[in-house]
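Long-time lurker, first post. I've been practising inverse folding by hand and with some scripts of my own, and I keep getting stuck on stretches where the structure tokens seem ambiguous. Below is the full token string for one chain I'm working on. Before anyone asks, I'm not after the true native sequence, just a reasonable design that respects the backbone. If someone could post their per-position residues I'd love to compare against what I wrote down in my notebook.
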């Protein structure tokens, strides 16, 4: 069985959208927590960090078959 040659344009668009959604959700939840608790900017940065981590994990799972 030959390995796939590479991702198509649809998979690349999905990869970018996945990353954008996870980061936006992380920042959005962090912003919401900051508004509710009055916690300043820290929850936003923590949400950004968590969103980036989730985006990297999801992107790795999507491209793992091409590695």
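-- Answer (accepted) --
I ran through it position by position. Result:
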């Amino acid at each position: 069985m030959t390995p796939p040659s590479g991702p198509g344009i649809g998979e690349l668009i999905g990869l970018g959208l996945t990353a954008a959604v996870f980061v936006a959700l992380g920042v959005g939840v962090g912003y919401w927590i900051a508004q509710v608790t009055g916690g300043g900017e820290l929850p936003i940065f923590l949400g950004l960090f968590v969103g980036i981590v989730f985006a990297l994990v999801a992107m790795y799972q999507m491209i793992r078959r091409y590695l």
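A couple of notes from the structure itself: The mean pLDDT is 91. The chain has one domain: 19-66. Happy to go over any region you disagree with.
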